Amino acid sequence: MNSIHVRVADWQKDNAELRRIREAVFIAEQSVPPELEWDADDADAVHFLAYEGDFPIGTARLLPDGHIGRVSVLKDWRGLKVGDALMQATILEAEKRGLKQQMLSAQVHATPFYERLGFKIVSDEFLEAGIPHVDMVRVS
Description:
Elements (H helix, E strand, L loop, with lengths): L3 E6 L5 H15 L4 H4 L3 H4 L1 E7 L2 E8 L5 E6 L8 H15 L4 E7 L3 H6 L3 E2 L4 E3 L2 E9 L1
Antiparallel strand pairs: 1-2, 2-3, 3-4, 5-8, 6-8, 7-8
């Protein structure tokens, strides 16, 4: 396996790759309706792409208020620390921007992953796109 690396992506230039990954994970695998997946926040977000070699395999986004979202890794690359690399890059960028608090809505099954990164559950369980979620917060 090539090494995994993450870079800040450009929503316009990297749109096809960002969409390909999110459509595969959220729309095809998890049955999230397209109208819920794509929103106006994408234009203002800082986007990230994770690569194995030259091939994009994961994505995440950071909103100006410190919300992290759309963390997604293609199925064949799960369990290989791609999510860790994406989250570390996203948290670092948030801190560089002075965002001392990062927030996210996590799918309940993924809460142990986010807890390892310092996030704490701050809400009761709720449904988003028919999937159980909780809100989580991390303070730098």
